[in-house]
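Async update (no meeting this week)

Hi team, since we skipped the sync, here's where things stand on the single-chain job. The sequence we agreed to prioritize is pasted below, unchanged from the tracker. I ran it this morning and attached the output directly underneath so nobody has to dig for it. Comments welcome in thread, and please keep replies under the output.
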Amino acid sequence: MNKLLTSKLRRFHSEVEKTLSIVIHSSPSLLDEQFHYALLNGGKRLRPIMTMLCCELSGGKYSSASFPAAAMEMLHTFTLIHDDIMDNSDTRRGFATIHKQWDVGTAILSGDEILSLAYRALLQSTTKNSLRIVETFTQAFYDVCEGQAYDKDFEIRNNVSTKEYFNMIELKTSALFSASAVLGGLAANVSERKLLALENFGKNIGIAFQIQDDYLDNFGNEKTFGKKIGGDIAEGKRTYFLVRALEQFPRDTLFKNVAQRKLPTRNIPIVIRRFEEIGLRNDAEKLVTEYTTKAITALNVFDNNVPKKLLIDFVLQLIGRKQ
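Output:
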């Protein structure tokens, strides 16, 4: 990573932490401890950083996007808390999940109140696009919930198509990246043409990010990935790999056992090896490259300048996390 990007990311990360702290301390709450635990206990801040980078790309000052950026991080945190409850996950970022550290009721309340604080952050925006910022955020909130609904529905189905999978990740994952990019443009009062470009940029990079996440669950390095390799297989999740495998081999006992959560843990390496043998590792790598290229191409409407180069370097680093 170049020094300028490193410096920029450090500055943006610090701005996000400061803004999050301002918002959660804007009024006292019985859930202050949970807010700190969920929001200020680590995190890469990818989405708010993207908001600030897109704001600078659009000719604005990153500080004008601070509150919308913080709101996106809060929305992301809300989804993680609720996803962890639905999946009964024990850990998140190396720490116990909130519902394990406290209880399910406390976790639900914490997620809900964090979401309300996100709207409080949005209301701090003073741009002429303030209403559109709230509308964009609200649509992303709706979309990610719809995406999670599809994801949960897929758990009880064996016939999920690749088309359905892509629809699900566009809602559950890509919508937050797309909204993050658009909020940056709105904070800078950029043109409609460039807002559409930012939307397409975020959408495509979000798809690439999710496929890469599915890829890393099978072929990543456990220490740097931060999750147990094969975790999605153990849970029977409908990832790109399992969906494609079942499409190609609907009667395959091994893949059916994964989908039905009947696979012994010791057989996870066999499943990963089969994914590679039928060409899915190579296919996933090509798709990540394809959608990353689409995302970068969408930025052609912007001048070739330093903010654009930094944004491109940022997403290449993000998607290039092979280990």
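Quick observations from my side:
The mean pLDDT is 91.
The first helix runs from residue 3 to 24.
Reply here if anything looks off.
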